[in-house]
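Q: My labmate handed me this sequence with no annotations at all. I'd like to see what the chain might look like in three dimensions before we decide whether it's worth expressing. Could you predict it?
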Amino acid sequence: MSLIKYTRPQIGNFGIFFDIDGVILRGKSLIPAAKDAIAKLMNRDKTEFLVPILFCTNGFGLKQVKAEILSKLLEIEISPQQLVMSQSPLEMMTSYHDKCCLISGPEHDGGSIQVAKNLGFTNIVTIDEVRAAFPYLDWVDRNRWNKQEVVNDPNFPRIDAVVLLGEPIRWETNLQLIIDVIVSNGQPDNDNNNNNNDDVIKQLPVIAVNLDLQWMAKATSPRFGHGAFLLCLETLYKKISGLDLQYSALIGKPSIVTYQYSKDLLENSAREMGVQSMKRIYAIGDNPLTDVYGSNIFNNYLAEEKKSEKTFSTDDVSIEHCSSILVCTGVYQPEDDVMNDRKSPIGSEVDHGHRDLPYDSQLTTADFVVHDVNDAIEKICKLENWHPRD
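A: Here is what I predict for the chain of 390 residues:
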């Protein structure tokens, strides 16, 4: 009787960042190509990955909730540690964790308050709490007006910073109250709304997460994202105060902060998998002004970092190059004459990026354009000459 001997599949010496919306999912539905694409990166029984990967998304929510959604749809086990959500790098911003922070954001997948607590914020104020403390500030919806005379809460704490985690449900309420908080330097009952130069210089810190103007859900065209809300906020603030809204930090793709954070996680994952050397990663996304722009900025950063190294590094698991791969199943919809696997001849024709990220068509031009995520994985395997099951 002969026994068939199976050798351990070859571990890939490269890494992959996957976007989720428009690459893996459309809304809550799986893009058909995603299941086969992910399976190509796993062992035969789909119990472990053979390549270091991260799902790096501008989506909002608790990592555990998103991991459960992906696990169910892909029919494999996705760990929360394999996810970088839009807000994840805020874990590192510990100087704000004990400050009194006004939190604005969505209510799905755990909700803004629980997400903020999980990030380490301990002194949280909500939009609803500001509404209750200052009942005459929110004035658009007359059905929400108080039926009798009310007074402001004299004991309401001064707000030290504003943290914008994603697009809220009631834009008119959040826009009004956030601007009230900023122009009053954290004291909405203060009548001296930035009437002197000292207040202007000391604008309240504002941190924004997820800069996407649009994102791809179930509709046939992209929907407004948090970038659209931020554009409204910036425009209103400028019109009211005469000043540009200043951000203390911008978090989420294409911010370099998010890529640095993700790089450290992926390198640690590679070491835990026993990867001997990893110098290259591939970033797969559907949005030229988020995924491609961010990947190319990150690749430029890696090149500068390598050039400026003063000492020789003995760490072979240290990413030095990032290639951008653009798929056509989300925000990006190519013209008929754009062929698969061709480098995009132009970047995004319209600047949908954030005000503080200068537009450059070269930065929105992907290294490779493919139809879907399965084609992206096949392209990577070919470039890496990686065939683990042969």
